[in-house]
Design goal:
By secondary structure, this protein is of the alpha+beta class. The chain folds into 2 domains: about 100 residues, Phosphorylase Kinase, domain 1 (2-Layer Sandwich); about 120 residues, D-amino Acid Aminotransferase, Chain A, domain 1 (2-Layer Sandwich), CATH 3.30.470.20. It contains 6 helices and 14 strands. Strands 8, 9, 10, 11, 12, 13 and 14 form a 7-stranded antiparallel sheet that branches. Strands 1-2-3-7-6 form a 5-stranded antiparallel sheet. Helix 1 crosses helix 4 and helix 1 runs parallel beside helix 6. The longest helix is centred in the middle third of the chain and has 24 residues. The model has no long low-confidence stretch (mean pLDDT about 95). Bound molecules: guanosine-5'-monophosphate. Guanosine-5'-monophosphate (5GP) binds next to strand 9, helix 2, strand 12 and strand 14.
């Protein structure tokens, strides 16, 4: 499978500006263009809303490359546009500066994580159809589960936006399940974020990475994602480098460049 590199004329002459925001796994910088941001993927791993932390070599590069690849694939295979403009290096994305909708969208194909804790469903139960859940994006509140009425009442999203999030999430899910399936990986669940662009357009934003997904190797059911770190069941760096090799068809150490492309 070829590695995808974004090279659009759009990013010629873009330079990095001041830090706008530092999150748990990424830094967002301004650029010399009002409409673009520069997103840097860090090697920091956190879990349980930042309570558990570590620095994992290569994590930022693996996440950035996989996310660019998957966001691009969602545009072509699912018809869902994203904020990606270009890969500036193996850890840096140039993205459209969207206004993030504070409604996180979790899609589940197999029961795991908070679904099992909340509803007493046994882990591993294959769901009869994809389940889309909304969570309010708030570190202080630990991203609580919400319903449409909550989102509408408190102005977090409009009705058409919620309808778009649900429809786009299902389209993404179909393409993403097929993508991982081909690599002998079960896509258990994952989180998506979306942003407003020019007021009336919604773009898939943030990232699609093993940090925000549950990926189980078919047959062994081995976790290939951040659960390895959350549950202390292996070496996250090795797990991520192996996932990179599975996605791109060659070892992480043999990747092209590593510098700006
Ligand atoms: P759960 O609700 O079971 O904790 O998470 C469901 C899925 O969404 C998991 O794949 C998890 O990695 C992802 N997810 C939910 N919230 C977050 C978050 O705040 N950060 C990240 N990285 N992933 C999240």
């Amino acid at each position: 499978m070829p590695e995808l590199h974004y090279t659009t004329p759009d990013h010629a002459g873009v330079t990095q500006g001041p830090l706008l925001h530092e999150g748990k796994a990424k830094k967002v910088f301004a650029t010399n263009r009002d409409d673009l941001v520069w997103i840097h993927f860090k090697d920091d791993a956190t879990a349980f809303n930042g309570v558990k932390r570590a620095n994992i070599g290569d994590k930022g590069a693996v996440n950035a490359r996989i996310s660019a690849h998957l966001l691009r694939h969602m545009e072509t295979a699912a018809g869902v546009p994203s904020h990606m403009v270009a890969e500036l290096s193996e850890r840096d994305h140039l993205c459209k500066k969207v206004d993030i909708i504070p409604v996180e969208v979790v899609v589940r194909n197999v029961a795991a994580g908070s679904l099992c804790r909340r509803l007493g469903i046994e882990q591993g139960r294959v769901l009869p159809r994809p389940l889309v859940e909304f969570f309010y994006k708030s570190d202080e509140l630990n991203d609580p589960l919400i319903n449409d009425e909550n989102a509408l009442m408190f102005g977090w999203a409009e009705a058409w936006e919620l309808a778009y999030l649900r429809a786009a999430a299902l389209k993404v899910n179909e393409a993403l399940v097929a993508f991982w399936d081909e690599l002998d990986v079960t896509l258990v669940d994952y989180k998506l974020e979306f942003g407003r662009w020019h007021g009336n357009q919604i773009l898939l934003a943030d990232e699609i990475t093993p940090d925000g997904s549950r990926l189980w190797e078919k047959g062994t059911q081995k976790s290939l994602d951040k659960d390895v770190f959350r549950k202390d069941i292996g070496d996250l760096g090795d797990t991520y480098r192996a996932l990179f090799a599975r996605v791109f068809g060659h070892d992480f150490a043999e990747r092209a460049g590593g510098a700006a492309v």
